[in-house]
Amino acid sequence: MPDIRTWQLATGAAALGLVLAAGAVTAAGPWESGRRTAERDRAAEAEAEPGGGHRRPKGPAPAPSAPPVLTALGAAPKTAAARGEAAGGPARELARRIEPLLRDRGLGPRPGVSVVDLTTGRELYGRDPGRAMIPASTVKIATAVAALSALGPYHRIPTTVHATPDARSLTLVGGGDATLDRAGLRTLARRTAGDLRARKVTKVTLGYDTSAYRGPDLHPIGVNGNIARVTPLMVDQGRTDPRSTGPADRVADPAGEAARTFREMLENEGVTVGGDTAPGRPAAGSEPLAEVLSPPLADLAERMLTTSDNDIAESLARQTAIARNEEPSFAGAGRAVREQLAVLKVPLAGARFADGSGLDRAGRVTPRLLTSLLTRAAEPSHPGLRPVLTGLPIGGFTGTLESRHTGPAPGSGVLRAKTGTLTGVNALSGTVPSHDGTLLGFAFLANDTPSPTAAQPALDRLATALTS
User: Fold this and answer.
1) Which end of the chain has the least Cβ crowding within 10 Å, N or C?
2) What are the DSSP E strand ranges found in 71-186?
3) Distance between CA 125 and CA 134 in Å, rounded?
4) 365 in Cβ contact with 142 (< 8 Å)
5) For residue 244, what pLDDT is reported?
6) pLDDT for residue 322
7) Example GO biological process term (predicted)?
């Protein structure tokens, strides 16, 4: 007999996949890295999805529609008429359950709320849903949607070695892959050394190029355990200990450290590297010699959301800027994210994207913007956005919700939500199935909160109330 955590997790996966299928998304399987294989094929086929230069060839036909799947499980899919039963009834019930909880002092003086039916997009409850507030890390939902819609879920970020025609002058060129680790860099060193051996070149010089980004590389909060300098070239996210996870000490110069590590790896492959390893553009006439690619953008978005990875978030914001021909800087990325979201026709009044990670307190979003983004990610016309839903942490199981909604809590295994935490700012935005099988999208933003220990339980009680 499966343990309760396995059963809860299976229930949560079914709730997300099947409830969406009943109202908005074609069900398919099996799961592949948190997404359904057929959904990835549909994303590659969808002509409306941007990022056409990085689409995969057409795959198998779409999977069967949801009703037979639900019937096999003994659940009758709801009709549109059933979802709209007793107009105003669900909204009244939500208000009855939520409003007493909103009086919790842990939520500060004026929390903002938006709750929607993700299968229809209809807002069921709102309190100040259009008020712009500090989002903290829930802004990563916007970062993910912008990057996926601008580039497509199969886009990969390259790290490249350029060489002069005689292959004696090399330049390591960063493309913005914030997930590059020592294993990936070693693969690049081996490929480079192999090409050099084929050309009978044994001695080279090495430089490194970070020109893919512009503007300051230091986040306004500075370098700390949560974020490195924002540079297109880094290895192990600039961590001083590559084995560390979560918040960790960072090196002062991630790009220079990556280049020095690459130099050592080349020398271990039998290539003699002379002179200094200094920053600079590739020499005239240089062409790509070897490269490694990041995981697909869908995987990067999921990892960013699940673990609230700030380095990946800033990378994806700049990739969006590059795709939209904006300057790949903090300011240019903010403009690009806003422009890309405008294409999706979501409410942007009052929104400001000061960074991709939400660490900058100058950022602003509205609760209604967050639920609108979740709604877009659930729509069949945007299959490439599905990783926004599947990447959300699962209550009691994964990422930043692993230690919340644990055990027999109603949200365990079924609640999926992005957390947000800064001093005086706490937020939660994601999805949860209600008691009748409706998949709800929600955003709870609380500013001027007294402490996380007071705010987080209050937010969790709000989310739990939606399941009742």
Assistant:
1) N
2) 112-117, 122-127, 158-163, 169-173
3) 20
4) yes
5) 85
6) 98
7) proteolysis
**Are 304 and 287 in a shared domain?**
no
pLDDT for residue 448 is more than 60: yes
Q: Which is it for strands 112-117 and 287-293: parallel, antiparallel or unpaired?
A: unpaired
How far lies 288's CA from each of 161, 195, 295, in Å? 6, 11, 20
| β-pair partners for 276 | none
Tokens of 222: 């500075």
Residue 270 φ/ψ region, left for φ over 0, alpha for ψ in the -120 to 50 degree band, beta for the rest: left
Residues 6+ apart with CB under 8 A from 417: 392, 393, 395, 401, 428, 429, 430, 431, 432, 442, 463
Name the burial class of residue 50, with classes exposed (0-12), middle (13-18) and buried (19+) by CB atoms within 10 angstroms of its CB: middle
Residue 8: pLDDT band (50, 70, 90) is: low
The CATH number of the domain holding residue 438 is 3.40.710.10
Q: Which residues are catalytic?
A: 137, 140, 308
In angstroms, the CA 452 to CA 121 distance is 31
Q: Nearest Cα to 421, choosing from 401, 441, 435, 398?
A: 401
Identity at 6, one-letter amino acid code? T
Least confident residue range of 45-54, 231-240, 438-447? 45-54
Average pLDDT, the chain: 85
Residue-level pLDDT at 223? 75
Containing structural domain, residue 239: 158-294
Token pair recorded at residue 172: 């390591």
Q: What is the mean pLDDT of residues 131-158?
A: 98
Provide the pLDDT for residue 67: 34
Are residues 314 and 289 located together in one domain of the fold?
A: no
Looking at the domain assignment, is residue 249 inside a domain?
Answer: yes
pTM of this structure: 0.84
Residue 25's identity, in one-letter code, is: V
